[in-house]
Amino acid sequence: MAITAIKGFNDILSSESSRWHYIEQSARRVFELNGFGEIRVPIMEKTDLFCRSIGDATDIVEKEMYSFTDKGENSVTLRPEGTAGVMRAFIEHKLYAQDPVNKLYYLGPMFRYERPQKGRYRQFHQIGAEITGVSDPLADAQVLNMLVHFFREIGLDEPVLQVNSLGCPDCRPAYRTALCEFLEKRHESLCADCKRRLSTNPLRTLDCKVPGCVEATAGAPSVLDHLCGECEQHFESVRNYLAISATPYTINSRMVRGLDYYTRTTFEMVTGLLGSQSAVAAGGRYDGLISQLGGPTLPGIGFAIGLERVALLLGQRDFLGTPDLFIATMGSVERDTAFRLMDGLLKSGVRVEIDYEGKSLKSQMRRADKLKVRYSVVLGENEVNSGKAIFKRMSDGAIVESALVVEEVVKTLMH
Ligand code: HAM
Q1: Residue 264: CB within 6 Å of ligand 1?
Q2: Which pTM was predicted?
Q3: Which of 14, 64, 290, 348 is the most buried (most CB within 10 A)?
């Protein structure tokens, strides 16, 4: 029996990769415009890094990590997300020494042992961006605008921005207590997971999709009513900047994130088109993470975009474009001329397709149609002898005669 790929691990076929390139190139363009530079970090890190940053009581650390002991008896983990590794590198290479403000972006595969379904995979890809060293709410707004700009750039206006604030270590405990008191009264209606979460990670109950929990948490206290003065001012200021840039968003005070490092601003780009996998991108501020990982006390904020989900939203559009010319040949004698012409045109940046198999003219033209080429030309003995041929524009059948000289053909194809 043939060996198949691991469940939840996908091949990205060449028919899909032009869409991926389009997404990646658009992200690079928008991020670099904003002054972000690419950082490439390993896809595997010491397990401890993720436990310490994402949090022991999160679903990711509790049940989704690809962790194993390597041959040197070290516990290592395939990265479930990018922020932890980027901050580890930031600290390890003292990137803050010259300037605490670093704007970094990354892209690549991430791994989570989740139940695969449309838009949710075990190997998936993120494009992420992080700013360190800025606590000013202006950075929050710039990051949010950059994310919205990216979606506009690729032509998607559907995912909408939802924003929340999760407070800080000063004000969150009081909110946690208020939420727990509320939930204790509805203890019986909660699912087994949420009953457990009450003592480990009560905020996550707000994110539970089980109908009983959705109902039980419907009137839960809002985190936004429990922010301390400074967090409230920060959130107000982020909203003010978003108003200045006329960035559309809604506030979702029930948005809690699946990673523990967040403080203050959190956000998601949400779509209704991918079933239950509604977040196409997500992120937030993590002012305590860098020091928690042994680095200096510096704030940070960033996000990650789920590439597979964006590709799904873009649908079947082909971003590669179509070939400029199909060269058909009548017999084997013309193949030297055809090859010479193709070689010269390719070197001039013209996309050329040719028949490889000595097929009949009819089947060559069928292939030209299928490839949706812009022009076709048939080379027979006459054309080879005269050094001229008829180029046919496929969209309307218009024909132009041109010398079989690269520069002339290039000119002809420009029309
Ligand atoms: P996250 O919300 O866990 O955040 O993931 C970000 C995005 O990755 C999600 O919105 C989703 O589009 C995509 N994603 C997550 N899991 C899967 C999966 N199993 N299959 C397909 N796509 C998935 C983070 O990872 C944070 N590191 C984001 C961040 C950066 N926060 C601050 N800086």
Answers
A1: no
A2: 0.92
A3: 290
CB atoms within 10 A of CB 370: 9
Q: Which amino acid is at 72?
A: G
Burial code of 222-248, b = ≥16 C-beta within 10 A, e = fewer?
bbbebbbeebbebbeebbebbeeeebe
How far apart (Å, rounded) are the C-alpha atoms in residues 20 and 25? 8
Element holding 312 (H helix, E strand): helix 307-314
Ligand 1 centroid to residue 93 C-alpha, Å: 25
Q: How far is the CA of 400 from the centre of ligand 1 (A)?
A: 53
Are 335 and 359 in contact by the 8 Å Cβ rule? The answer is no
pLDDT mean values, one per 10 residues, the chain (415 residues): 97 92 97 98 98 94 97 98 98 97 98 96 98 98 98 93 97 95 92 91 91 93 97 98 97 93 97 90 98 98 98 84 94 90 96 93 95 96 96 96 97 91
Q: Is 124's C-beta closer than 6 angstroms to any atom of ligand 1?
A: yes
Which ligand 1 atom is the nearest neighbour of the CA of 269? Answer: 10
Is the minimum distance from the CB of 258 to ligand 1 under 6 angstroms?
Answer: yes
Distances (CA, A) of 335 to 59, 212, 279, 327, 358: 61, 72, 53, 10, 9
Residue with tokens 């049940």, as numbered in its chain: 63
Please give the DSSP secondary-structure letter assigned to residue 334.
G
Tokens representing 352? 């050329």
Kindly report the backbone phi and psi dihedral angles of residue 135, in degrees, each rounded to the nearest multiple of 5, phi listed first: -95, -15
Q: How far is the CA of 305 from the centre of ligand 1 (A)?
A: 7
Cβ–Cβ < 8 Å for 326, 376: yes
